[in-house]
Structure formats: C-alpha cells, structure tokens
Amino acid sequence: MLLTLVSAILVFLVTTTVFFVATNNAQRQPYMDEVFHVPQAQQYCAGNFTAWDPMITTLPGLYLASLPLLYPVAAVFSRGDFRALCTTSMLRSVNILFSLGNLYVLYIIAHRLHYNRKNATEMALTALALATFPVLYFFTCLYYTDPAAIFFALVSYSLTLSNKHVPAAVVGAVAILFRQTNVMWVLFCAGIAKGAVLKKWLQLEKKDPAEKVYSDWTMLSRTFALIGQSLRYNPRQFWNLLMEMFLKVWSYVLVGVGFVAFVIINKGIVVGDRSNHQPCVNFPQLFYFLFVTVFFSFMHMISVRQVLSFLKYAVRNPVKTGIFHVVGVVFVYKFMYIHEYNLADNRHYNFYFLSKLVRRNEYMKYLLIPTYYYAFVTFWSKLQHRDVFWKLAYIICTAATLVPQRMLEFRYFIMPYLLFRLNMPMPSKRALVAEVLFYFLINSLTVYMYVYKPFPWPNANSLQRFMW
C-alpha cells in the first residue's frame, strides 16, 4: 500500500516540476489574477498587514498561509528577508505544496471510503487522477487560491469521515479564508454528520433486523413519520435525537453563524470588487456541471452498456423524461445568464465552451438538454449506494455553490466534482489508468498552449496566454 502511494507521489512530483519550470520560464511576471494576488502577498511579506487591494474578492488565507510555508526557505537563503524571497516564482511554488497535500488527502479519503486489502493500487491511481484533475491542477503553476482552498476543504471532509467534527469545523473555517463558497462544504460536512445520526436512528427502529436497506423515499418518509410519532407519543425520544444531532453539528453551526455575521458586516459575500460578482439564479450552471463531469469521467460514465441502460430508463419512465426536458427548457429559457467576461475573454476554455457549443446557434442551448439528461441519469446512478441524507446535503450544497453564479467558471466545479468522483464506486484499474492518462494529456495540452501559443490582444501591451 505504501509503495503505491509513494509511486503516485513520485509521478506527481516529476510531472509537476516539468510543468512548473516550463510555465514559469515562459511567464515570469504575474499573469491574470496574479496581478492582484502577488503584490498583495508581497505586502504581507514586508509586514504590511493593513494594505489591501480592493480588486481582490477573496479573503487573505492564501497570503497568510504563504508566510509560514516560505519562512524556512527565507531563514536559510535570505536570512529571514521575506521581501527578497517573495518573488512571483517562489509564491507560485507554495501551490506545489498544497497540490501535493491534495494528493495525500485524496488518498486518505479514498482509503476511508473504499478500502479493502486488494485495491491499494486503485486508491493510489484515484488520488493521482483527482490530484491532477485539469481544472484544479493547472493552478499548481500559478499563484491562485484554488489548490489551497481545495486542500482545506478536503481535509475538513476527511476529518468528518473520521467523526472528528470539531477539528473538521475548524479546518472548514480556515478553508473559508481561501474561498468564501467553501462555507457550503462546511455545511455539507454538517449534513453528513446529521444524516449519520438519523440513519442510525432509523436502523434502530427497524422491526426486522434482516429488513433491506430503505430506499431514498422510504427513508425520508420513515424519518418524518418517526419524528411525528416521537413528538406525539414520546417527546423525550425526540429531544434525545435533537441533542445527539446537536452534539455532532454544533461546531459546524458556529462556523455557519460566524459566516452569516461576516456577510452582514461585510454587506455581502464578496470582499473587494463586487461589480462583476453579482448573484443571480442561473440554473443552467447545474447542466454545465453535469456536462463537464461526464466529459472528465467519460471512461466511467460512457459505455455501450450505460447508453443502452439509459435509453431503457428513458423509455420506461416517460413521465420523468418529459418532466426533465420541460424543466430543462424553462431553466434555459428563463434562467440562463451569460456574463460579459465569458463572451469577451478568449483566454479560457469556458469562452469556447459557450461560444462554440452552448451558443453555437439559437437552438443549440435547447438541443443539449437530452445530453444533460443522460449526464444526470448516469451521474445519479453512480451515487445510488449513498444514503438519502448524503444525497440531499450534496445536492443542496452543490446547487447553492453554482446556481447564484452569473459567470461560468469551471473552477467552481472542482469541489463538487471531486466529491462525486470520490463517492462513486471504485472504478476498475484499467479505467483509472485511462483517467490518469487522459488528464495528463489535457494538462500537457494546456501547458503547451500556455507556453508556446501566446497571442496579442488589441490595446494590450503584453502577449496573452491560454489557460483554464
């Protein structure tokens, strides 16, 4: 088991070093959002913790975390002089550490969810694949918040799986300092903890120990029925249930209350520039997420057997199929928002996703709905082994993270995607190898475009580079 993990780490470090050197040699100066992040971190390196760039929209977690990580290097090579050390390249290197941490935490989570004595290789391949998930991995080479934000969110989830709820909530609070939307994954962890209590309660209420596991709807209806019966005939049992849930989730609740206080004081979730981050109700974001999920997991979600299974399901369930398509048309017609940046900035994959696919012509956005339906049915089938409380927490938190976003940004999909992949059944070794190679191909292509295919922009003094 240890050997497979070490092998995954070595592969990760070798490829990451090559990509990091290539991208940094090509672009030595801050690029894109680094124009804001790097100078802000350098202010902190100089000991100026009151300075703040109003264009930055996230909390200062990345800059604060960079200092202790770089301190040992500064102590050895620059006698503690952070000003000399906090170059663009050195600040970028911080994300190599966080990305390596992501690899390890992903392995730990895969171990807790899927461990058996024969699947050590599969767990290592899963961790390697997800640590190199292209939307996340590219930012290992830049000074962005994503690797660190995902690292702390994953650590919080891992602690929740180990029933260490207070540390999980504390780490979740730290994750919010890197990206405010991480509050939803703190609440997701709370939902898991609460669901575990309810599930245990339901199992104890079974009259027949040999009775099969409840279906989703049965479990929900049974839960409400038992709560009603307890309130009417045994209030003490109900209050005991509430107390047990409170003891599990109180630390998460404190984080949630603290975040609400922050939003009230800050008069919004975003700090700094809010003009380009106005919330809306953009339901098609969920469709985009499903589409992207199937694309990156095609080796797990697209096969002749799965396509045939989907077609049978659609034919045998005409009411569900019809409702999905009607709702899909309504979502696309009434709730589709396209941020002006998505149509003006051709330096990102999302520009081409929208302009060449979704907005290819007037009807394309509707013609894609059957594709979303396949994605939804297949996606949901991969989570059938999870209980209804887990599913509800996941759906609510994913929707709350994505739907209010006017801008299509694939980085918003990272945490929902990782949670889906970690919780689906363990794929075969062959499929995992295909996934690792596919991600390596995409990462190589993206780095190649970034390094070797810069292009000019009108009224821009420097060359522009393609990236996620």
UniProtKB/TrEMBL annotation:
One of its GO terms (molecular function) is dolichyl pyrophosphate Glc2Man9GlcNAc2 alpha-1,2-glucosyltransferase activity. It catalyses: an alpha-D-Glc-(1->3)-alpha-D-Glc-(1->3)-alpha-D-Man-(1->2)-alpha-D-Man-(1->2)-alpha-D-Man-(1->3)-[alpha-D-Man-(1->2)-alpha-D-Man-(1->3)-[alpha-D-Man-(1->2)-alpha-D-Man-(1->6)]-alpha-D-Man-(1->6)]-beta-D-Man-(1->4)-beta-D-GlcNAc-(1->4)-alpha-D-GlcNAc-diphospho-di-trans,poly-cis-dolichol + a di-trans,poly-cis-dolichyl beta-D-glucosyl phosphate = a alpha-D-Glc-(1->2)-alpha-D-Glc-(1->3)-alpha-D-Glc-(1->3)-alpha-D-Man-(1->2)-alpha-D-Man-(1->2)-alpha-D-Man-(1->3)-[alpha-D-Man-(1->2)-alpha-D-Man-(1->3)-[alpha-D-Man-(1->2)-alpha-D-Man-(1->6)]-alpha-D-Man-(1->6)]-beta-D-Man-(1->4)-beta-D-GlcNAc-(1->4)-alpha-D-GlcNAc-diphospho-di-trans,poly-cis-dolichol + a di-trans,poly-cis-dolichyl phosphate + H(+). Keywords: Endoplasmic reticulum, Glycosyltransferase, Membrane, Signal, Transferase, Transmembrane, Transmembrane helix. The chain crosses the membrane at residues 61-78, 90-111, 123-144, 151-177, 183-202, 245-265, 286-303, 323-343, 363-380, 392-420, 432-451. Its EC number is 2.4.1.256. The keyword Membrane applies. Residues 1-16 form the signal peptide. The keyword Translocase does not apply. Belongs to the ALG10 glucosyltransferase family. Dol-P-Glc:Glc(2)Man(9)GlcNAc(2)-PP-Dol alpha-1,2-glucosyltransferase that operates in the biosynthetic pathway of dolichol-linked oligosaccharides, the glycan precursors employed in protein asparagine (N)-glycosylation. The assembly of dolichol-linked oligosaccharides begins on the cytosolic side of the endoplasmic reticulum membrane and finishes in its lumen. The sequential addition of sugars to dolichol pyrophosphate produces dolichol-linked oligosaccharides containing fourteen sugars, including two GlcNAcs, nine mannoses and three glucoses. This is Dol-P-Glc:Glc(2)Man(9)GlcNAc(2)-PP-Dol alpha-1,2-glucosyltransferase. The lineage of its organism: Eukaryota, Metazoa, Spiralia, Lophotrochozoa, Mollusca.
